[in-house]
Write the structure tokens for this entry.
Amino acid sequence: MSEINVVPYIDVMLVLLVIFMATAPLLTQGVVVDLPNAPSEPVSDMDDDPLVVSMRKDGAIFVNLGIQDADDEGTRVTVYSLEDQAAKILRARPDVPVFVKADEALDYGAVVRVMTVLQKAGAQSVGLITDPPELPGA
């Protein structure tokens, strides 16, 4: 008999498939934010590690230095400690771009409060991260 028995390989493949299917949802982390849709320019790749402040629907605030690793939700802060955290980063790198990524269901006043705190910390300008609008027929 010169045929290869592939049944053990199929068994191993199915076990690996089950493992990957079970662990895939666990790998998607980060701050879940439902961004508003707005036509805007994409963030350039030249901005290596911008300061990104994420705000969830429940008002939780996270600070992340860098937008490349979207899975990393960053450090959770309060609106009171945000000024100290941002000031330290902006003193070390005064030219770092600052962005706010806020859930669209969040109160407008909470977003403005965070933007005001970032400007007090020394941010020259604060950008807002949005999702591109849905194209008709897409």
Summary: The mean pLDDT is 78. The two ends are 55 Å apart (CA to CA). The helical segments are 7-27, 79-92, 108-121.
